[in-house]
Amino acid sequence: MARPRSVPSLCRHKASGQAVVRLDGRDHYLGKYGTPEAQAAYHRLIGEWLAASAPTEISLRFVTELIAAYTRHAERYYRRDGRPTSQVHAVKAALQYLQTLYGDLPLADFGPRRLKAVRQSMIRGGLARRTINARIRIIVRAFRWAASNELIGADLWHRLRTVEGLRRGRGGRETEPRRPVAWSDVAAVRPHVSAQVWAMIRLQWHTGMRPGEVVRMRTSNVDRSGRSWLYRPASHKTAWRGHDRVIVLGPRAQDALAPWLRPAEPEAPLFQPIEAERAWRAALVAERKARGGVGNHKRPAQRPRHRPGRQYSVCSYRRAIARACEKAGVARWTPHQIRHTFKMRAARAGGLEAARAALGHRSVSVTAHYGELDRRLAETVASRIG
After folding, report:
1. Which of 50, 71, 180, 326 is least buried, going by the fewest C-beta atoms within 10 A?
2. Which value, to the nearest 10 degrees, does the dihedral of the CA atoms of residues 155, 158, 162, 168 take?
3. Where do the domains of the chain lie, and which CATH numbers do they carry?
């Protein structure tokens, strides 16, 4: 095994009185020597420097160094289509609590009791119980990554694994489970969304695909050779497990999708916000009633705050629906609720196994995880034999 790489110490620059550390032949000045700010900056810099090195040739000493190293790893690892995924934001949010409480603590002094203290700070912050458990798992995962790369001893990770997740009523805010959405609430938003967003809503309603799958649709991913079209997303939620994902598009889904196909641009996103913006501006111009220049004086061009792109994100798709729900005066619902509704409809039409196949789940137990489905199946049994 290679000898661990030594970490340069923080020194005092005599001429200026600043804290300085030399990394790879370059001096880094970190503020006044002896201050907590300089010490914290030193630990962050060392963590970033270590993260850029070969993992088997370095070692970590402080919690903040592990945080910096794992954050760099997450930014490189959790990427889709060349962009960071939402998991990167979850990692940073979880590690922020660890940084606040124990950033300057030596790793040798960290353990299960201090991990519980981090969890308690999340409880005081008003986070939901499930969110707290998820963030604690991320923190433990960071220590597992460091142990697997021989940056720390594996015994620390094993000790942190003994901290069990919060049970209901043991801390953290409880949240309501996601419910299906009625078609009346879905149809109510139609006048308040763009044609692109409404097409995506219809596709979700008729296929049950995930929001991330509908916003990334491209012509090249749709096989139209058969009676039923087949959509194979280039990337999806379980692709990292090696699972294939095929979404079957029936007649109604085909009617919703056909106007948006781009045979001339097979790799272009089907639903583009920039086109929705152009259509909206064209409608504003068409509705103007003034004639002959009255009230139509030219105004200086204003640069929009956020330029629309060529592809919706899951967040922008969800925000468009939320704004439309507010304008329509209906209870707010999300794209994920459409998938839950489709599961209920599929289960009633063909049973639990049919719902599993349509949703792309590998196991029926995943499909049955939704409590509403279990209740309705129980009601069916009770009506027949109860």
Report:
1. 326
2. 140
3. 28-160 (1.10.150), 183-286+309-333 (1.10.443.10)
